[in-house]
Design a protein that fits this description.
Structural class: mainly alpha
Distance between the termini: 21 Å
Radius of gyration: 22 Å
Order of helices and strands: HHHHHHHHHHHH
Largest sheet: none
Shape: globular
Number of strands: 0
Length: 400
Amino acid sequence: MIPACAIFVTLGTISAYTFHLIGRIVQVANSESSGSSSEAKVTSLGQLWDKEIGPSTSWLITLACFLVCYGTCLAYSIVLGDTFRSLAESAGLKMLASREANVAVISLFGVYPLCTLKSLAALKPVSIIGNIGLLTTALVMTIRALPGGAYSAASSATNYLATLPLTLHPSFGVIGLRKLSSTLVLSSMAATAFLVHMAGPEFYQTLEKRSIKRFGVLSTLGFSSVLALSAYMMCVGFLTFGGSCKGMILNNYSTLDPGATLCRFLMGIALLGSYAFIGNVMKSSFNQLIYKGKEITDEIQKKTTQALVGTITALALVLNDAGFVVSFTGALLGSALIYIIPPLLFLKSTKRRIDNGSLASTSTLKIERFWNRFLIVLGVFLALAGGSMTVVNSFFPHLL
């Protein structure tokens, strides 16, 4: 558990650094802009790439953003299927007791209507429900992890172990992180947990009383909060179930557990709303790739929504492990957006300014440029090794 937390904290710290790095590059781009209007300001990674690298390859950034959103929505569909299946079992609704039935029903009557909304203003309360759900889940997991808790073999009170299959029973005594495969899968999941970098430019531009110092405070507080809560829930889940922890930790808890049922309900609502927000970005990125320069009509939006939700639903019916989707997306795309693209933009920006004499090549800058080159190498390694190991770990475990 300690090595896992150390890896998680290290990668979280690096993610915070590269997020802050984006703000620094955007500030430079803004100061060099000829205009003073908001239209002249950089508000996306694609615009930043256009300026520092060139417009001929900016479609790669749009593609990366689309694939990240697509993978996230796929993971949401899988989790929603698992979540509402468990809720149906708790409520005794046998007709919805299968994961596949829930994926289909939720996609048809929940996900698709939400993704066709022209305004997402009505979904603002979902963020509040999401925060309440996270804190409630952390509290319930803490109570269940206490000595003699409901999932402990030594419990003399209510015990839910008898309602779980043996594969979900607590399993301790196996040191998993001594295997390179486990370390790489954890690294891939960490990339997904800290992946907000595609929104970095907009975060910087919309910050009240904008400055690099305030943006640094935002980055530190935001990433520290996510890091602390994620690491805490990871530890509490491990202390309860050990090596039996599933990619979606709530799947470990019994459908008869009222605390877990409440958590599933809150997180299910939060995920539906989050799906709509992420789905909106996914559609926008898709339209930029396919219909660039063309007017996006209502008919195009409708067909795009049907195609994307339809393919995601089909994949969610086949794939049943959200942990695999999260790890694979994090390994390939998360690594690129966190460890590769921001350092590459920084190197290009600083080299250009050194060459034109607007930036002095100090020893501190040389060290930071070397550090960013190392991050690019790290990102390539984590993307290739992490992605490959996630596939092997999920589908060919006998090879490990």
